[in-house]
Amino acid sequence: MNLPNGHLLQNGKYKLTHVVGQGGFGITYKGVWYTEVKGPLGTVQTEVPVCIKEYFFKDYCYRDADSLAVCVHSATGKQLFDKFKEKLIKEARILSEVHHPYIVNVLEVFEEHNTAYIAMEYIDGYSLKSLLGKEGMLPEQQAIRYIRQIGEALQFVHEKSILHLDVKPSNILIDKQGNARLIDFGVSKRYDIEQEETSTTLLTLSKGFAAIEQYDNEGIQQFSPCPDIYSLGATLYNLLTGKIPTESILRATRPLKRPRELNPAISEQTEAVILRAMQIIPADRYASIEELLAQLPQSTFAPTSQAGASAPAPSTEEEETLLVSSGGHPSASPTDEDETIVNTPSSPLTQKPEQVSVQPAKPARFKRVAVLLIGFVALVSAAFAIFWQREAVEIHPENSSLQAETLPTESPATPSKEEEEPTLTEEMTAETADKEDVAQTNKPETTAVTSKPTTQTGPQQEAKRPTATPAKPLDSQPKPASMNVESRYQALLQSGKAKLAKADFAGAKADLTQAKEAKLTEEVVRLLIQCDEGVEQQQIADRIAQYEEKMAFGPYKIVRKKSNNKYGAIDTKGQERIPCKYLSVGIAEQGRAFERPDNLFDIYNTDGKLVGEGLSYY
């Protein structure tokens, strides 16, 4: 399905040399760009190495053998293909204007062969993913150096209201100078001045590196650096431990292992940064990349010369990035690369019931155990017969429960239930087992008392019998912890939902936080996110209410503050961009003139920057 080596694009402007990688949404080629360089000696023809990414949605596309054009199997598939192609082109053109030392530059975007191509700067180096494959894990100082550089790149694009949304080791290249370069903005999003999404590419996620809000197609409608902060923390986790973190959406049932458990050489400070960046609730993470970098230790790593480094070998390795359907869940895929990331022996979602059942003993050992058991039963029966003839009968509930506890392990949980509700499997299984324990415990004890031939009759026997029946003491015992936890969780969840519906965000958050402590589920996490968003919107409304809006001024609003009747300007979140300390506002050539108490004027442009200070006129 690849274009042949030596193929020309753009009427010979670009020549493809070989494939360097491919995934579910594109094929990446190394190539050369034939261009001219002008200098003191005139114009010189030269060849510049480039990297060209072809949009190829492999689940819907195929390549025509004769024309090499990218074709789509069905009309529905073509609509989806065309929609994402246009969005990809739009994003690439935006990124062609973004230039940073730690971001691979986009040179050009064009259409050919019925699809889109992005020509990018070629980095003669290797990815962090390939380095991890060779080294296993990186020294802390080296990993921190790379994360700091990528963090600076993310901070730069965040200031332009752009999210990357796919930060991971395979999207970070190390160039010959030993610097990290962020690549693949193919799934990025850009937001306008109102912080609302203006351009949406494929809704995708990378298992282990994607924040939980990326699983919801409505989880990142407004700009927030939180998803990239999570991914950066997960990338550092991967670099220092060699392990892909537990997928965020599965952490309700599979808690994230602390980095120092996997690599004791990691410092406590670095571990603390990773764990905070990877908090499930976005509001619990750092507020910005800048804040994260301020807490991260400084790096003393000095890269050695990479002059002898070779370019990555051609690869057809599949990326782990998944397309998320409109329902917010990963779409089905015939490929197996996704399972290789999360399918671990400890995963409750991938183990079959037979794998956790009790294994039978070996035949020889079983015979010895059987003989001993028969003898023990006979001895106990004889002792019991003698003991029964005495005046009192005493049965200890715990002796029966020991037998009852082994019963649920003999009948594994129903596989279909485990597949339908993966995040609740462990809690439901535990609750069911507890109920079976109670039933099995009651049953043998009641039978033992009522079915035994009696040796006494009359009122004396009836008076003694209640002391031998454990039903009352059993009923008075506390219910299993899992049943109490489940009922507490459900009560707090319903209370939180009711308060959320009434816009009591603080009260809802208090209940839902307790529910999360009782049982961490995807539902309670999403509700907590709604609470945080509601609190933030409430705070914004309260801040804006302190001002009287007068007129628009670029992206801001010129306002008069109610508390002092002074003029200034605020942004959409009610933050003062021009302090409210001025007596009046007038129109100036470069923007607006704000009159100071000394009757001089400060001039601000539409970006809210002071361009003239203390002027006597404007």
Low-confidence stretches: 192-202, 307-320, 323-367, 387-479
Total beta strands? 24
CATH architecture of the largest domain: Orthogonal Bundle
Q: What does the radius of gyration come to?
A: 33 Å
Give the number of domains. Answer: 4
Strand residues, percent: 15-25%
**CATH uppermost class of the largest domain:** Mainly Alpha
Largest sheet: 6 strands, antiparallel
- SS field, number of helical segments: 18
The outline comes out as: globular
Per CATH, what is the topology of the largest domain? Transferase(Phosphotransferase), domain 1
Range of helix content? 25-40%
Query: Going by CATH, what is the homologous superfamily of the largest domain?
Result: Transferase(Phosphotransferase) domain 1
Averaging pLDDT over every residue, what do you get? 74
In the sheet with the most strands, the strands line up as 1-2-3-4-8-7
Q: Structural class of the helix and strand makeup? A: alpha+beta
Distance between the termini: 65 Å
Question: Which helices and strands, and how do they pair?
Answer:
Elements: E1 8-9, E2 14-22, E3 26-39, E4 42-55, E5 61-63, E6 70-72, H1 75-95, E7 106-112, E8 115-121, E9 126-127, H2 128-135, H3 140-158, E10 162-163, E11 172-174, E12 180-182, E13 189-191, E14 197-200, E15 204-206, H4 226-241, H5 259-262, H6 268-277, H7 289-295, E16 321-323, H8 339-342, H9 353-356, H10 363-388, H11 397-405, H12 415-420, H13 425-450, H14 459-468, H15 471-476, H16 481-501, H17 505-518, H18 522-544, E17 547-553, E18 556-561, E19 567-570, E20 576-582, E21 584-588, E22 591-595, E23 601-604, E24 610-615
